[in-house]
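Quick one, tokens below:
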């Protein structure tokens, strides 16, 4: 089996990122699999090369190693363009001229998590109407009125009707940048990834990604969506929680202290005692990992 780290170099890793990375690594190492690192620097506005170097240094400091590195997403445009062309050839891609403000002011339905469900505004535009537009369009993929479901290794059965719960989604932004949903599928398939372990915040993206695997004729991996770490008051951790980013944590903790604490939060250890990555791999078992959507840190 092949697993992966897929960090976005948009800031310093925080404790929540380390939690997902640790579980991905433990799953691979406890099964004698192969670990791949892929820098997801898709968004030029948010990502910095310096952050990518720091990420790697932080992973090494933690003792979370990898066997090979995939080409960073910023250098994979041709592969994404190829997938985009295949989807276009299926007649499933159309230009969308809606602005963010229009989308939010329209009475579009929202999913349970507050995400906007695209109402299909630009789906039926005629060629003449498109020719009149002056702004560069984003590109959306039509979704079918059907369920895409899978069995998550931790969360159990998950299913979504793409029309009802999601709507046509963007696969290429107006500035030309390919969307995460498309890039992650193309790259996981190209990298031979067979197991994806990542945070619960991406559970909801998975049915869209399964649809893309289907359309592109690719084999999907198995998925494990691990709990999100929250602050003690239940608030989601973010890059703004500086005291929980590795810049600070590396001054105040040893790698063993951090990993042992995270393994305890995950349910793997009975007490928050220091442990190395290798020691944790020796006792790792998915059956012991918490199934809850969130864990307080
Ligand atoms: N690059 C994404 C992130 O850092 C993770 C994508 C994934 O695991 O599918 O949030």
């Amino acid at each position: 089996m092949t697993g992966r780290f897929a960090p976005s170099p948009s800031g310093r890793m925080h404790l929540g990122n380390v939690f997902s990375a640790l579980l991905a690594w433990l799953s691979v190492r406890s099964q004698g699999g192969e670990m791949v690192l892929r820098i997801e620097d898709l968004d030029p506005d948010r990502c910095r090369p310096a952050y990518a170097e720091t990420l790697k240094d932080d992973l090494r400091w933690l003792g979370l190693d990898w066997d090979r590195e995939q080409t960073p997403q910023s250098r994979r445009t041709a592969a994404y363009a190829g997938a985009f062309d295949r989807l276009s050839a299926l007649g499933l891609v159309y230009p969308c001229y809606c602005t963010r403000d229009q989308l939010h002011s329209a009475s579009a339905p929202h999913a349970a998590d507050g995400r906007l469900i695209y109402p299909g505004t630009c789906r039926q535009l005629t060629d003449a109407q498109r020719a009149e537009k002056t702004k560069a369009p984003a590109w959306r993929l039509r979704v079918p009125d059907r369920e895409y479901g899978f069995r998550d290794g931790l969360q159990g059965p998950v299913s979504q009707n793409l029309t009802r719960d999601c709507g046509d989604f963007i696969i290429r932004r107006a500035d030309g940048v390919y969307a995460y949903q498309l890039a992650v599928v193309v790259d996981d398939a190209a990298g031979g990834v067979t197991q994806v372990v990542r945070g619960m915040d991406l559970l909801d993206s998975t049915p869209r990604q399964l649809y893309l695997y289907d359309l592109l004729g690719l084999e999907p991996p198995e998925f494990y969506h691990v709990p999100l770490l929250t602050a003690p008051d239940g608030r989601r951790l973010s890059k703004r929680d500086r005291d929980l980013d590795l810049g600070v944590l590396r001054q105040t903790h040893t790698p063993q202290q951090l990993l042992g604490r995270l393994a305890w939060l995950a349910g793997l250890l009975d007490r928050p005692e220091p442990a190395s990555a290798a020691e944790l791999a020796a006792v790792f078992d998915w059956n012991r990992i918490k199934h809850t959507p969130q864990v307080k840190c």
